[in-house]
Specification:
Length: about 375
């Protein structure tokens, strides 16, 4: 429920009214959401000496960031062109980002693949396509079915490694992560922004909304919506090996380097539903067998679904959103794992009043329709 503007204060309330006699915490920055975007940003800011608190509705790294395939697909031809500068920045930051998280957490986050065979839609020919001999020498069993293929020097990681390491790294850097703390209200407070959870109120100079598919509820941005993705992991028999990611516009196979292969993923408009349908999983497997037949020998080991934060134009929303010192970083859709280091960097630059490393105008929150913008502006 949204309450109207009261005495010039910004107020979004859903569920609970703020109780009285509450604990009050203070921080330079309060971040909503302990997914990869919120925690990477928190880590970056804490390493700059800011006091950062992350409030998480459930458990850290338990939503989209847990569900992802983990491709760092900066050169996927399906990506919107406007994403390229942010993707390039992220790729350049990734080695240092992983080394830092590994050092702080004392946990390893190995790169699982170092190359991708990118297929076109059937009938389309990439300009820089590999010859059929080159494709066959990379992966003899690949069925092209009228597709052309590019070779991409691209990496992937297992997001479950990050789920273990990133909260540990952020905590080691001094970030306070408060789980089971859903934000119920955000309003202008005496020293900046006042953020309410059922247990406590936090006063902060800055507030950043990193709530992924749920970010629209806090920012009143109906254009951020969940995009469901169903996935399956299979295990190959030990005599078979897939060395690269195979990706087409409809399907990807992402090997983990230990015989497990993640096959994904659907892109569904299904609200916040995370159920897994057996028929959908079977279709993913059938399509994977058609592309790379050895998969027919694999056993299913896990199925799941996750909710990508989608936006109306497929681009993230990064920057000012709503009242003074309220910021947003969401809508990373299919590329949030790739884009986390760059998003954290540009948010750090914004908060510290520096010029962002990339032009953020394609990601402005007020680019959406006037209804959404005027809703956001009501809260001043
Ligand atoms: C099936 C699938 C495959 C994917 N594959 C890839 C891939 O290969 N490569 C890639 O780069 N990306 C991939 N993605 C996309 C990537 O996972 C997301 O873009 C990224 O994880 C988004 O991170 P986030 O931190 O914004 O969201 P999340 O990880 O969803 O985190 C948001 C957090 O906010 C919390 N929250 C919500 N509301 C509140 C509230 N009111 N108060 C406090 N906390 C709240 C949630 O509980 C959650 O923990 C994939 C996603 C899916 C689902």
């Amino acid at each position: 429920m949204r309450l109207p503007n009261i005495n010039g204060r910004w107020q979004i309330i859903f569920g609970l009214s703020p109780p009285y006699n509450r604990d009050v915490g203070t921080a330079d920055v309060v971040i909503a959401g302990a997914g990869i975007i919120g925690l990477s940003t928190a880590l970056e800011l804490a390493e700059d000496g800011l006091r950062v608190t992350v409030l998480e509705r459930e458990r850290a790294m338990s939503e989209a960031s847990w569900a992802a395939a983990g491709m760092l697909a900066a050169h996927d031809p399906e990506n919107p062109a406007a994403l390229q500068p942010l993707s390039n920045l992220s790729i350049s930051l990734y080695p240092g980002y992983l080394a830092n998280v590994e050092e702080l957490s004392e946990l390893k986050i190995p790169l699982r693949t170092s190359g991708t065979l990118q297929g076109s839609t059937p009938g389309h020919h990439f300009k820089a396509a590999l010859s059929s001999e080159e494709v066959a020498s990379r992966l003899p069993e690949l069925h092209s079915a009228g597709r052309s293929f590019l070779w991409l020097n691209e990496h992937s990681l297992d997001p479950r490694d990050l789920c273990a390491a990133l909260p540990k790294a952020a905590t080691a850097a001094g970030v306070a992560i408060v789980e089971q703390s859903p934000i119920t209200a955000v309003r202008n407070g005496p020293s900046g922004v006042s953020i309410t959870t059922p247990q406590a109120t936090y006063e902060a100079e800055h507030f950043i909304n990193c709530c992924g598919a749920w970010a629209g509820a806090i920012a009143s941005l109906p254009t951020i919506e969940p995009r469901k993705g169903q996935m399956v992991t299979v295990k190959l028999p030990s005599h078979l090996h897939l060395p690269y990611v195979i990706r087409t516009p409809e399907l990807y196979l992402v090997p983990r380097g230990d015989g497990r292969i993640v096959i994904g993923a659907t892109v569904e408009h299904a609200g916040f539903d995370k159920s897994v349908q057996e028929t959908t999983i079977q279709t993913l497997i059938d399509d994977a067998v058609a592309l790379w037949p050895p998969i027919r020998n694999a056993q299913i080991v896990e199925t799941w679904a996750g909710l990508r934060p989608g936006s109306a134009d497929g681009l993230p929303v990064i920057g000012a959103c709503g009242p003074h010192n309220c910021w947003i970083a969401s809508g990373h859709f299919r590329n949030g794992i790739l884009l986390a280091p760059a998003t954290a960097r540009v948010l750090q630059e914004i908060i510290l009043d520096k010029t962002p490393s990339v032009d953020l105008s394609p990601f402005r929150c007020d680019r959406f329709d006037s209804a959404a913008v005027s809703m956001a502006e009501v809260v001043h």
